[in-house]
Amino acid sequence: MKTEQPMPTDVGMPTKKEARAGKYLVFRVGDEHYAIPLSEVREVIAMTTMTRLPAVNDALEGVFNLRGKILSVCDLRNRLGKGKADSKKPCVIAVDIDGYEIANIVDDVIEVIAFKVEQISSGLGDYSFDGVFKDYILGVARTARPGTTPSGGSSERLTVLLDIQRLLRLGAEDAGVPDRSAA
User: Fold this and answer.
1) Domain containing 163 — which CATH number?
2) How many independent structural domains does the chain possess?
3) 145-178: per-residue pLDDT in tens?
4) pTM, whole model, 2 decimals?
5) Where are the beta strands (DSSP E) in the chain?
6) What is the Cα–Cα distance from 129 to 115, expressed in whole angstroms?
7) 7 within domain boundaries
């Protein structure tokens, strides 16, 4: 039986946040639903032409021009370990990370939903089921799906609540981008 050892605290990283009740933007990456607090979303737009950058790692996909402002682009499908995006209608979710506006490619934006505290499970620990440290997961929210299961019960959709600030900071560290949060 494999026992997991706690990971050391990340120096310079903010402490892990707890999932809170409130409004979230729900989006799809692969077959999974994810959500980020609506308060952290600057805007959602359809994917436009992106300029790929040579010799960058998976944390940075490229850049694109949003009304005269050049934004860095992160492919959340790739960042979350789902491979490169291949959606026919990808969307871009722009968020602000320490003064940098970053565009995040997702497969589809689903809805804005207000999760209640009783819908959210936060006690997941800091590990995913495969033993990989995932400290950017705030919790999991349950919502009822329309209809019933074949056994007559109701079915639920699970939505993974992300700490997008922490997820993108971890990606920026991988790319060698300096952390401006301590400044």
Assistant:
1) 2.40.50.180
2) 1
3) 766 556 655 688 999 999 998 888 765 554 444 4
4) 0.76
5) 22-29, 32-37, 41-46, 51-52, 62-66, 69-75, 91-97, 100-106, 108-115, 120-121, 137-148, 154-162
6) 24
7) no
